[in-house]
């Protein structure tokens, strides 16, 4: 049994992730649930070293030894995987996320139609948020690919690691990977402004320096896409502002209010048929939203979304209620993913 055999089995079973840990059989995640691959016994630490180390370069082995964890991407004839190899309880372990070779369209992903308007913009800040494993990178890739197919632009991506490989289109795409193409998020972002970008994709905003650089790029007339691990649009605003020292927060609120175009806060919800479907909260940078951010009244954002459906905004509860009405998810499942279960219950009663 080699890592390539396990990758092939992961793809064959339509799994999103492969987990390798000592004293467990290989585990795969299918539609959000973990399953053991059949007929494979638990693996020893020595088994894992034999399986994992051959796919690491010498530089990667040295980084792993130094940092005790490493992110990278690995391509096979069967497909491409985003990998995180790490140590736990003194033994090697790995998590491998399967990256589908075909970049699915926004329609295929089930993104709201308003998202097509976001990719037509030429400047501003667009955030895709949600928990780990809920499709943020896939959504960003779909949006970047729509731009790639529809207009001529220079797109720079800064990723750790590179996930989707974009086919040639009308745009040119410079994809920069941590450790291979640059050694610093901050330097890469500062350099981006000297690389004549039209659009910049930031794989993950990790700290205030990354966020500040992203805001600066957006403020200088570029379109910026980025991800953040937050649960709602209002929480996203608070997280961005909150990572800065208190004396800098008024300036950050001003910058954010001037540049924010949209927040897509998404979840992948288990369906009745055993698949997953996307539910999303949509916040759009209208004058009311910009004023609310500038004045530090983010507690009003949820109310603005609820009363701005005609402009394309949508709460998570509205999205979940729509899925229930379509018959794709159960009420019980929707309740587990609702930010405000009482609001979802109210919406269900209106049907």
Q: Would you write up a description of this structure?
A:
The protein contains 15 helices and 13 strands. By secondary structure, the protein is of the alpha/beta class. It folds into two domains: 97 residues, Beta-Lactamase; 209 residues, P-loop containing nucleotide triphosphate hydrolases (Rossmann fold), CATH 3.40.50. A seven-stranded mixed sheet has the order 9-8-10-11-7-12-13, with helices on both faces. A six-stranded antiparallel sheet has the order 3-2-1-6-5-4. Helix 10 packs antiparallel against helix 11. The termini are far apart. The model has no long low-confidence stretch (mean pLDDT 95).
Question: How much of the polypeptide forms β-strand, as a percent range?
Answer: 15-25%
Structural category is alpha/beta
Q: Tell the overall outline.
A: globular
Please work out how many helical segments DSSP would assign: 15
Stretches where pLDDT falls below 50 for ≥5 residues? Answer: none
Largest sheet report: 7 strands, mixed
């Amino acid at each position: 049994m080699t890592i390539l055999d396990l990758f092939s089995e992961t793809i064959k079973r339509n799994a999103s992730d492969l987990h390798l840990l000592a004293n467990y059989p290989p585990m795969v995640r299918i539609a959000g649930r973990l399953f053991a691959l059949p007929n494979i016994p638990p693996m020893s630490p020595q088994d894992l070293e034999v399986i994992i180390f051959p796919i690491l370069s010498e530089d990667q082995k040295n980084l792993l030894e130094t940092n005790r964890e490493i992110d990278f991407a690995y391509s096979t004839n069967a497909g491409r995987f985003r990998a995180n190899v790490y140590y736990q309880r003194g033994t090697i372990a790995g998590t491998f996320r399967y990256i589908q070779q075909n970049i699915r369209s926004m329609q295929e992903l089930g993104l709201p139609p308003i998202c097509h308007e976001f990719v037509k913009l030429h400047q501003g800040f667009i955030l895709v948020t949600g928990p780990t494993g809920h499709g943020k990178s896939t959504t960003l890739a779909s949006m970047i690919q729509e731009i790639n197919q529809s207009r001529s632009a220079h797109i720079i991506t800064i990723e750790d690691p590179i996930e989707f490989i974009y086919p040639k289109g009308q745009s040119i795409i410079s994809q920069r990977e941590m450790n291979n193409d640059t050694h610093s998020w901050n330097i890469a972002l500062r350099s981006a402004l000297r690389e004549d970008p039209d659009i910049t994709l930031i794989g993950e905003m990790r700290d205030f320096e990354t966020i500040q650089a992203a805001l600066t790029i957006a403020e200088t007339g570029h379109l910026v896409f980025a991800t953040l691990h937050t649960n709602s649009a209002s929480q996203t605003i608070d997280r961005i502002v909150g990572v800065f020292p208190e004396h800098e927060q008024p300036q950050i609120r001003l910058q954010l209010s001037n540049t924010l175009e949209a927040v897509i806060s998404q979840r992948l919800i288990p369906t009745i048929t055993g698949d997953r479907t996307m539910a999303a909260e949509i916040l759009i940078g209208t004058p009311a939203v910009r004023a609310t951010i500038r004045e530090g009244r983010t507690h009003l954002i949820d109310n603005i979304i609820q009363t701005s459906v005609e402009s394309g905004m949508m709460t998570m509860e509205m999205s979940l209620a729509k899925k229930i009405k379509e018959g794709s998810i159960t009420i019980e499942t929707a309740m587990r993913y609702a930010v405000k279960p009482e609001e979802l219950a109210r919406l269900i009663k209106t049907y």
